[in-house]
């Protein structure tokens, strides 16, 4: 059976996240859909506040209590996450689903050694001896590029650099051989010279171990290098989804095209030239949100954009736009 027709490891339909505020209801995530198969990397890209991180926390069952989650379906390999008990979610987290946060110290306890934390991560979910867990920890530290791995087990998080701490967190995420890793801006807190190394390491290891990954980022350059599929998020919606080659080679939503136009082109962008921007600001998502959220910033907006609910189009390359062929048609390009 092909990857496209095989049952997805994770299938999300109609995920909505609402946050009650004194000024009204904030519709932070608005009815998003996506599928993820084993071994695939889905990159969710969008600016700050678009709902990317909340989406990841919803999958992990780590939302604040005041956030109201609803969905038609959030199926992880036969387990419906929307109705799973707290005990079931605890058994999934760190075992079959692992998460890598932006800041390594979010995941590491400063009071315990690296070795104790790695060993506990495995023994919490597996009936193995401490020696077995220790050997597994050493093996994974070596896999993530940490030299003298055995001696590192006795060190505390504060004794490691930011890059080494993030490598430890990646090793911890892989301890139980998860089927899905969610990485939320995993390199943003690191020096730019280390970011590419860590990202390449993470992608190579997930491919080697056939682990599915959701990588959340705002960096389209990263997405272009590592994604199998891309989801472009704006104002709480996935406005465009599809294979990475399609989204980058034939972007259909005006927002996606705007983002791509903002990327400097090596050899084409003159030194000192101003970077491209998308005019306007993201609209408020408090209260009733009607029509297309991008319409006030879109060069192709028409009257229908104010009220019409954009149609998503057909898989695998989908986009939310009232123009049947998206921005390409609106700009006079062949569909």
TrEMBL record:
Residue stretches making up the ABC transporter domain: 10-260
Keyword annotations from UniProtKB, A to Z: ATP-binding, Cell membrane, Membrane, Nucleotide-binding, Transport
Highest rank taxon of the organism: Bacteria
Gene3D superfamilies according to UniProt: P-loop containing nucleotide triphosphate hydrolases
One GO cellular component term: plasma membrane
Database matches in Pfam families: ABC_tran, oligo_HPY
Subcellular location: Cell inner membrane
GO biological process, one term: transmembrane transport
UniProt xrefs under CDD domains: ABC_NikE_OppD_transporters
Alphabetized GO MF terms: ATP binding; ATP hydrolysis activity
Membrane topology designation: Peripheral membrane protein
Similarity comment: Belongs to the ABC transporter superfamily.
Family matches, as PANTHER family: DIPEPTIDE TRANSPORT ATP-BINDING PROTEIN DPPD, OLIGOPEPTIDE TRANSPORT ATP-BINDING PROTEIN APPD
Protein name: Peptide/nickel transport system ATP-binding protein
Organism the protein comes from: Roseovarius nanhaiticus
